[in-house]
Structure formats: C-alpha cells, structure tokens
Amino acid sequence: MQAKIFHIVPTVFHSPSKLPSYLHQPSLPRKLPRAISISSPVNDNHHVPGPLTIPDKDESMAAFWDYQFLFISQRSETSEPITLPVVEGTIPPDFPSGTYYLTGPGLFVDDHGSTVHPLDGHGYLRAFSIDGVPKEVKFTAKYIKTEAQVEEHDPVTGSWRFTHRGPFSVLKGGKKLGNVKVMKNVANTSVLKWGGKLLCLWEGGDPYQIESETLDTVGSFNVINESLPSAEKRGPGDLFDVAARLLKPVLHGVFKMPPKRLLSHYKLDAQRNRLLAVTCNAEDMLLPRSNFTFYELDSNFNLLQKQEFNIPDHLMIHDWAFTDTYYILFGNRIKLDIIGSMTAVCGLSPMISALSVNPSKSTSPIYLLPRFPSEKSAGQRDWRVPVEAPSRKWLLHVGNAFEIKDIDGNSMIQIQACACSYQWFNFQKLFDNLVWKQDIIGKADN
C-alpha cells in the first residue's frame, strides 16, 4: 500500500555551497554580548527600555542576526512580571485574554569552557500574559529547576558548571571518559497545561510541574499511572527479547535511563477531552525493533486506556499524530553506528552519534495503529504492515491529521507535516560540537 504525497514547498533545496553569496554568513562585529540580560524594572509600571536592535542592511543580514540571538545564553530571570513596551501596532480589542507559555533552551555556555548543543540547553520558561482590556502584555521568565539545573547552577554566585554531558554534547571543561550523565532532563521542549497543572516536557523523562503564576518549579511529575494492563500486540519471544533483558539493567542502573521514555510531544483529543501521550523503551535505541506504548488520560490524569505496539523496525520517533481511529507513527529509520558508539562511550563524541540514519530503503513507512481495536474499522487491515510513502523523508513535526470519507464511503487520512531528506538530517553533522559551536555559538557567545 502506498501513500500519496502532496508538496506545498519545493522538495529540492540548494546546499549551502550553492546559495547566493549574500546568503552566506556575513561578517560579524569583533565582539558580541556574552549574554542578553533582562533589564530590571525602572519604575512602578515595570516598563523596560525598547528592544535590542541591530542595524540591518538587507533582509538576509536581519535574518542572520535573528538566528544568532537564538543561541546567546540568557543568565537573567525576572523577579516579577514586566510590562512590555509597544513597539508597533496594538492589541485588538477582541483579542482573548490569557497566558502564552514558551519553553526552550536558555543556556549554552558555562563558566568553565564547556558549550552544549541547544537540545541540551537548560529549559528557560517564558510567560506572556495578555490582557485585552488595558491592552498590556506582561512578561515573566525563569529557569526550570530540574535536577540537572540545580546541580549545574550556583544561585549564590550565579555561575554555571556543566556536569551532565547530555545526549547531544561533549563537555570541554567537564568530565569526558566515564561520564554516564547522559539523561539530562532539561524540560526545554514543550509546555502542557492540563488538569489544572502546568508541565514542561523533555524527550525522555518525566515532565516538571510549574506554578503557573510565579513560574516557580514544583518538581517532577509522573504523568503515566501504570494501573491498567496493556492491550499488548506482541509476537513470540526472540533473541531481541533476551538482548532487551540484558540491556535494561545497564541502561537504567548505569545511565539512569527510565525503562520507558516519555516523548515530549503530546496530543489533545478535544472531542473526547483526553490527553494522549506515548513512550518508547530505552533499549530500543540499540535494537532493530521499536516498542511504543500509547496512553489516554482524562482531565484528572486518570489512565483510561493504554496499548503497546511492537514494530519490527529500528525507528526514531519525535512527533506523531492521531485521528478518531488511529495513532499514526512516521518511521524515521536509524541504525547502530559502531564507530560512533566507540567514540561516544569514550566521551569524544555525543551519545547520539552511536546512531545514524538508515537510508537503505527508498520509501518512508507510516504506521496506522488502531486506537480502539474492538471497533470494526480498526480491524480491516494489519497494522504491522506500514503504508509506504513514495519518497524517503525524515519527519520532524506534525501539524495535523484527520480522516475524511469519499463519495463511496471509503476513509482517507490527510496528514500535514514537515520533513527533510536523510541527507540533510545527519547525526554526525547536526550534533558535531566543533561544527555548530564554531559557526554559531563561538561567534555569538564568546
């Protein structure tokens, strides 16, 4: 079975070497600020000076500067909400009041010579509280006090020392050989407000609960209640089951990896008022198979159902989708990299370099996994057989997925997502500290 693909953007992108010269890296000033600081309130209204601006000669230069400022460490937090000044325009009178929460990496360089990849940057939570009546926006920002953040930051001196290598970094000023602090939960990926709780998620561990008004960290929060048995769909045991049993105590006991890693992307089923989440098994990163467990919870975090699927393929999943009938997984194929594994264990390369993309097939598998196996519509096809998209793409994020029926009553699934080629999504280049640090951080943060 094949999927039909529709492109709304070109599928061929020029490599950096073929880009026009004006889009290449412009020359930089000799010195950039080491960190952007939040100004302290200067009066009772807590207004701050206008935004930092850089004179731009053309759009490419402006875009370059915008990109540079994404990777400048932020060492300040707000002590109380700050009213943001109006730069242009106004808040529409019918704009709904509320708060927009945004988490992301905030610190990239410590005070002892180490630089981490942005994916390992400590979670920096920002809140934009919008009030349509006085037409004001108040800004609050604080670091999420994860276990790693508390260990690496000295609140008295304000200094930082990276001790966790994380999955994507190599520490220059910290311990390399024998550093097993790989699972660096930085809560920097997504924000969820559900069941009266504000949670910040990371790819591979429990989320952290945050006090929604002050942004103070409450502590880690276990979303999944394993009180229900799985509706498992497993084949007979094999050698991989034996390997999994051997790997689990090592990954958990030595590297502190949880047996099931909660993915950072969740979904909300508004019609059923459910929170949908998915976990994968820790050992599956090293084995040519993938186990995914899907959970559906009510507004009080009570577990309503869970299902486990064992897929005989080595996959890396970051984002996924769902419809009324299916969970949808997009198969990004990976494989174990022997040389990368050796350098990663020695601390010479990030742990992620133990894996590499697997371009052995020309198609992209899409797995349609039944949400409700007892329903007739879910049992019409074997979920173990993927739908093959006719091009090899690495899926990054999903916008939406939904089912429609044609005039004959046949179901069709439409998926809106963004993807890139396997050639562009290269672990060794994406997570090579020397490459991205020198090109971006080294010029913008030192």
Summarize the structure.
The protein has 446 residues and is an alpha+beta fold. It has helices at 59-69, 147-152, 239-253, 338-345, 427-430, 433-444; strands at 82-83, 98-102, 124-131, 136-143, 190-194, 197-201, 208-210, 217-220, 260-262, 267-269, 274-281, 290-297, 303-311, 315-316, 321-322, 326-330, 332-336, 355-357, 364-370, 387-389, 394-405, 411-420. Residues 6-52, 232-236 and 438-446 have low confidence and may be disordered.
Description:
- The protein is of the alpha+beta class and 446 residues long.
- It has a domain at 71-222.
- It has 6 helices and 22 strands.
- The strands form 6 sheets. Strands 9, 10, 11, 12 and 13 form a 5-stranded antiparallel beta sheet that branches. A 4-stranded antiparallel beta sheet has the order 1-4-3-2, with no helix packed on it.
- Strand 10 (267-269) and strand 11 (274-281) form a beta hairpin.
- It is globular.
- The relative contact order is 0.11.
- GO terms for molecular function: 9-cis-epoxycarotenoid dioxygenase activity; metal ion binding.
Topology overview:
Blueprint (H helix, E strand, L loop, with lengths): L58 H11 L12 E2 L14 E5 L21 E8 L4 E8 L3 H6 L37 E5 L2 E5 L6 E3 L6 E4 L18 H15 L6 E3 L4 E3 L4 E8 L8 E8 L5 E9 L3 E2 L4 E2 L3 E5 L1 E5 L1 H8 L9 E3 L6 E7 L16 E3 L4 E12 L5 E10 L6 H4 L2 H12 L2
Antiparallel strand pairs: 1-4, 2-3, 3-4, 5-6, 6-7, 7-8, 9-11, 10-11, 11-12, 12-13, 14-17, 15-16, 16-19, 17-18, 19-20, 21-22
